[in-house]
Amino acid sequence: RETPTPQVITFGREGDPHTSGEHFLEGGREGERPLPRGTHTRLPFHGVDDDDFYDRNLALFEEEMDTRPKVSSLLNRLANYTNLTQGAREHEEAESIGEKRKAYKSPQMGTFMGVYLPCLQNIFGVILFLRLTWVVGTAGVLQALCIVFICCCCTLLTAISMSAIATNGVVPAGGSYFMISRSLGPEFGGAVGLCFYLGTTFAGAMYILGAIEILLMYIAPWAAIFVSSSPDGEGAAMLNNMRVYGSIFLLLMALLVFVGVKYVNKLASVFLACVIISILSIYTGALVSAFISTNQIILLGNGTVPSTFDPSLPSSEATTALWLQFCEGPDLNASCDYYFNLSNISEIPGIPGLSSGVITENIWSVYLSKGDVLEKGSLPSPRPVHPPTNRLPYVFADITTSFTLLVGIFFPSVTGIMAGSNRSGDLKDAQRSIPIGTIMAILTTSLVYLSSVVLFGACIEGVVLRDKFGDSVKGNLVVGTLSWPSPWVIVIGSFFSTCGAGLQSLTGAPRLLQAIAKDNIIPFLRVFGHGKANGEPTWALLLTALIAELGILIASLDLVAPILSMFFLMCYLFVNLACALQTLLRTPNWRPRFSYYHWTLSFLGMIICLALMFISSWYYAIVAIVIAGMIYKYIEYHGAEKEWGDGIRGLSLSAARYALLRLEEGPPHTKNWRPQLLVLLKLDEDAYVKSPRLLTFASQLKAGKGLTIVGTVITGNYLHSYGEALAAEQTLKHQMDKEKVKGFCQCIVANKAREGISHMIQSSGLGGMRHNTVVMGWPLAWRQSEDPQSWKTFINTVRVTTAAHLALLVPKNISLFPGNSEPCGEGYIDVWWIVHDGGMLMLLPFLLRQHKVWRKCAMRIFTVAQMEDNSIQMKKDLATFLYHLRIEADVEVVEMHNSDISAYTYERTLMMEQRSQMLRQMRLSKSDREKEAQLVKDRNSMLRLTSIGSDDDEDTDGVHMTWTKEKALQYRATHSGCSTPEGFRDMLSIRPDHSNVRRMHTAVKLNEVIVNKSHDARLVLLNMPGPPRNPAGDENYMEFLEVLTEGLERVLLVRGGGSEVITIYS
């Protein structure tokens, strides 16, 4: 045989008729479909642009380039991760069709500015300055520590769950609502979103009430509009003042938010500085108090008296203002109150200081009823005949206190942990910043709260701590009396910080409502999705202001705080539930980058949230649960009537039917995609499974979750083979039990194996419980087999799965795959990502590594760069893509140069074509001999002609030919070239087909690269090229696959179903 000339080897030279644009059809044959256009080599083809031809190195994949793009072009598209092919649908829909896309500006905020400081600002709020001292005085240091610790544990556990959810994909703007609704579905998402919205709105009302309390009590008491003439009406007058001023403040704040959020964000840093300075002044004051005792308070016996009175004792000449309050006249002999007569007046320091040991008195709780006098327990006191009324100038408790009430009032001071995740759209690296920033902020604030409880208990006199409004210390803010250098530092600082927190709430809540309204899950809220031209939520702001006004009309900080505690606790409860469920269900998309979470922690967080709800206020808890339940049911039932069957007997069937109908409602979202397997097994003559390792592999891939259907086909007639089918089903069940595969088995009887497999692929499953992935074995020894049935069935199955848009997995050398009791040592699972067909290649190693057998294997991803690709940029893009997918893997880009086609490739193609032609001739001669025998038997009979290269038993398309002696001789002369030496000589002189040479070149080149890099890998995953469109080349296709996987021990050929199965979004 002559050595082929170089012109033939390096196809595409000028003047070669086979490669000109007009003739370059698939397989070099005219009349067939031309190849789709795509990304191409740089060879100078004559008369045609370079861009009209595919890469020679990817010729095997060229027929499907329109649906399965090259990896380099995919990565190019994903470079800034704003326009993912699928999975980003929600965000793409948000931009209306006509709207022009704004230039993408990458967010720059880091952990400190973007998460830590906003969380600090939101967590530190009004309660720290206005109520923490009172909580410590009433509950005592121990119980106060207990309250703070439980509340901080609740938020810490929630933050851990939230970090897991937030790092499970890109969290776009929308924060907590987005995370929960996309994790738990629209019903939970809507219910929790609205709870969180109501909580944030009431928080705005609480901050405004706090600001007004500071203004009217400590900054400008003269500004009160309503003033009561009698002591009885003071409380009511104060509440009315709060309502009026609160409404005015709310209006001003809403206008500021309406005018522009940018002003609110600019002021945020100023307000945060106020908070930090105030807290530092408390610590400084506590240290200073160790050396100086300040703020004298007056006690009458052991009861506290407002410090507006002159404490000097009555002399013989004159009586004091205090005397006038307790006695009937200014004279020394006037009759006085019984208690006043028996008690001494004494002065003690209100801030004894750190070194005084006052903490021993403050360590235990002192719960009071409404109207009780604040008493210092260590001083003696005569028992009054009747309890003092509020006409006497004592300092009274304004509400009845209990441990549960204090929990409800304190809890809002630990909320605000979602501030970081709500800003996720502005963070440079949200997956890293949110967990670190949020958890650090919670630890910082918890430390401040716990240390403040101890410092307050150790520095301030108990009666002063229990004095909510500071009457005993000249009407000053109690925390202010401790601060250094002046009480005004805290008063001004806390006023601005509460105003700032109120503004933040009024900014955040409307956006949250707008996000819920835009999702269109609650129809009556649809109107609130609209806003100003720049997207500001005008209508949502209006509703928020109205709901906040309801909170302001309540007018009491102590009554509003438990309401928003409820809503926040509901929200945190669902965040924990979402994390626990995702972890227990092991959905393939659950791959948080934050790994320090566990379902037990989430459950503990859930229990604490539920306990705190009922501890702080059981009736509010029930109301909050009912509201959430009603929203849930409203969303669930909206527009769809559910029918639950009748009676308890039908409940199980009804539940199953209900679940299947729910599954049927639409195709699964990308992030819920998991492989639902149909495993095709072959039984031998004795009805034993030929490749039980296929089941082992399926069980490792599923890790006990999802749907598995195991199927086999028996050739024959169903009427006669019914018993055989039952026996085969029992065999499959037994094998499934042995391999611990949970699923269903199916046995189909058909005349031909390929028909049976096609029917099984079409009809297996029920409703939404259908397979989306087919697993089948590689036809062993297909080359040696004289019967082409096995590989023809194989290729037919590949075509059927492609037509059905199902994924296909073909493990080659399945007998070498590890069993369930043979864990792989440390090694690599190598992924060769050549074309993108939905991300199956990324997902499968992740799922396999959930199983103990593959757990120790690390993952490597290789992709192929052509000459024109920027391989350095490709590597960076691929690493970023994997980071966003939360998949840990080493990345390598392998460069394939456009080398000329080697003589080896040419020889290999030649051998392949000669072999297939020889087999065809042998099959023809065999069929001819049979036909001749038939001819002798009955010369005039009608016979069906078997078409060239098809199965012996396969019907042709009903073509009937009449055989005569002349026709038979003529047929033999033309078709049985193989039986003569000349025929073989003709066959040896054939020149290989150009498209086959190019495909063989791809297979050889890729195989060289793969064997070079992955020869020691535990498993190699590889894109499986599709079969040729022209069935005449089927045998060559098998050869290409064989060459592609030569020299590799364990190979998994993967073909995606055409839909995305992996997403960077949570």
Automatic annotation (TrEMBL):
- Sequence ranges assigned to domain Amino acid permease/ SLC12A in this UniProt record: 115-290, 400-678
The subcellular localization recorded is: Cell membrane
What molecular function does GO assign, one term? potassium:chloride symporter activity
Q: Where is the composition biased (Basic and acidic residues)?
A: 13-35
TM spans (from-to)? 110-130, 142-171, 191-224, 244-263, 270-292, 394-418, 439-465, 485-503, 539-557, 563-584, 596-613
Record's bilayer topology term: Multi-pass membrane protein
Which parts of the sequence are annotated with region: Disordered? Answer: 1-42
Alphabetized UniProt keyword annotations:
Cell membrane, Chloride, Glycoprotein, Ion transport, Membrane, Phosphoprotein, Potassium, Potassium transport, Symport, Transmembrane, Transmembrane helix, Transport
Q: Does the keyword Phosphoprotein apply?
A: yes
Listed under GO cellular component are: plasma membrane; synapse
Superkingdom, natural source: Eukaryota
* GO biological process entries: cell volume homeostasis; chemical synaptic transmission; chloride ion homeostasis; potassium ion homeostasis; potassium ion import across plasma membrane
Catalyzed reactions: K(+)(in) + chloride(in) = K(+)(out) + chloride(out)
Q: What are the residue boundaries of the SLC12A transporter C-terminal domain, all occurrences included?
A: 692-809, 825-1066
**Pfam families membership:** AA_permease, SLC12
Q: Does the keyword Transmembrane apply?
A: yes
Family note: Belongs to the SLC12A transporter family. K/Cl co-transporter subfamily.
**Stored PANTHER family:** SOLUTE CARRIER FAMILY 12 MEMBER 6, SOLUTE CARRIER FAMILY 12, CATION COTRANSPORTERS
Looking up NCBIfam families in the UniProt record yields: 2a30
The identity of this protein, by name, is Solute carrier family 12 member 6
In its UniProt entry, the species of origin is given as Hucho hucho
